[in-house]
Design brief:
The protein is mainly beta. Helix content is 0%, strand content 54%.
């Protein structure tokens, strides 16, 4: 499964993240008979086959960055300094 991903900062205001992945699967199942619980149960035959799956998945996201004007929720609140009277 080859993949690529990248991250780009845009003017210190946004982060763009993008990626792509290509999946391919080949499954081959032979013919078979289902096991019976009792000898009186009917015999069931299942025909096998081949499954081929191919898919390209892409994704992208744009995230705004915090600026000095927006305080972080974990940063302490500035305390008022005592005024001189």
């Amino acid at each position: 499964m080859p993949f690529a991903q990248g991250k780009l900062n845009l003017a210190d205001r946004f982060t763009l993240k993008a990626g792509a992945r290509y999946d391919w699967i080949n499954v081959q199942v032979p013919d078979y008979d289902v096991l019976r619980v009792r000898k009186t149960d009917p015999q069931i035959h299942v025909s096998g086959g081949t499954l081929r799956y191919r898919n390209l998945s892409v994704n992208a996201g744009l995230t705004p960055q915090r600026t000095a004007l927006i305080p972080s929720p974990t940063s302490p609140t500035p305390k008022a300094s005592p005024s001189m009277t």
